[in-house]
Design the sequence.
């Protein structure tokens, strides 16, 4: 694509490095910014740069944070004996938005994936084990909230092995089954099969 | 949506002001930037700010430009007697990418739209008339390359009226008809009707 301006071209090239944004979309975004007030662009550029350079990670749970301890770990009203283990910060945000969880988190920073060269030592697994086994640790339950993919299941299996020696520790996995509003006939066989085997007794 | 960090929240809010980008996509983009090297974000922020603050518009054709005269108007190899009138800079880029046009452009900056309160005086119409009628003007042909929508047709009609008094000036419109690869049965009636009435004789 030819551009009438180097400035536009640079902006389009940088925008199209973002995931899911191609050259055409990038051009549309750039021209939108040109039409909008200068403040829109100034605020966007500043917010992105500030986010990237000023953000830190919580020393306990490795979630993104504005300070050395994230607001969830610092909150004494939350249940610090229950730790929900997730792959990514996005999962923390998703679970927080359900409003159903009162415990704390541990962000692994990914899942074990031999194909992409991600091993256990590349993830925050040692710090989870330390956090759980350290003297005076108040952790009593680990909830594995990892996506049920091949890599996710491998990671969950590895974590169970690492943690099974810890006394008085309950390890659970988030429930799997037919999603709310899901149609049985469109569910895959493995999900449907497991949801029958692991059927839940109804309260009477 | 709750965010574990004010910095992330600000970035998401600013990103989601862009057209076609909702909160979820904005969060995905923000987390992508956090995982990527700091340079990616620094370059993006700088390219956007530079584009918005340093860009100028060509004094002749009103296209975006890095200097007072755009590279197309400054190019003496192009045919300055033919002016292609378009609504938007995006159209200049689209036509340039066909590689089929050797003339110059005139960017109106929009189309006449009473509903959105855009009148002829809000567009670069007077400068087009001046450019065409000025003494010593070399303009001999005006190609109206405006989208065939209600507003576009109104704008084209208005321009034809304003320019019809100019002597020795040919005014043309880009060809309309069935697009390449288009199926006749899916074409709308007006397009199909016009493409029969305005049929083109085949060279033998």
Sequence:
């Amino acid at each position: 694509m030819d551009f009438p301006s180097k400035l536009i071209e640079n902006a389009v090239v940088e925008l199209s490095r973002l995931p899911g944004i191609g050259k055409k979309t990038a051009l549309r975004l750039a021209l939108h910014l040109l039409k909008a007030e200068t403040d829109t662009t100034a605020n966007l550029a500043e917010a992105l740069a500030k986010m990237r350079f000023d953000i830190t990670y919580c020393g306990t749970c490795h979630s993104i944070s504005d300070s050395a301890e994230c607001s969830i770990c610092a909150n004494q009203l939350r249940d610090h004996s229950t730790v929900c283990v997730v792959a990514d910060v996005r999962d923390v945000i998703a679970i927080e938005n359900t409003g159903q969880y009162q415990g704390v988190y541990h962000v692994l920073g990914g899942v074990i994936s031999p194909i992409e060269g991600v091993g256990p030592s590349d993830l925050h697994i040692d710090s989870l084990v330390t956090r759980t086994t350290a003297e005076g640790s108040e952790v009593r339950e680990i909830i594995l909230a990892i996506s049920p993919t091949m890599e996710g299941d491998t990671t969950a299996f590895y974590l169970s092995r690492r943690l099974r020696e810890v006394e008085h520790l309950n390890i659970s996995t988030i429930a799997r089954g037919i999603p709310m509003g899901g149609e049985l006939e469109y569910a895959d066989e493995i999900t449907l099969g497991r949801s029958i085997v692991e059927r839940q007794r109804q309260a009477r």
Observations:
- Chain B has three domains: 6-54, 78-173, 177-204.
- The first helix of chain B runs from residue 6 to 15.
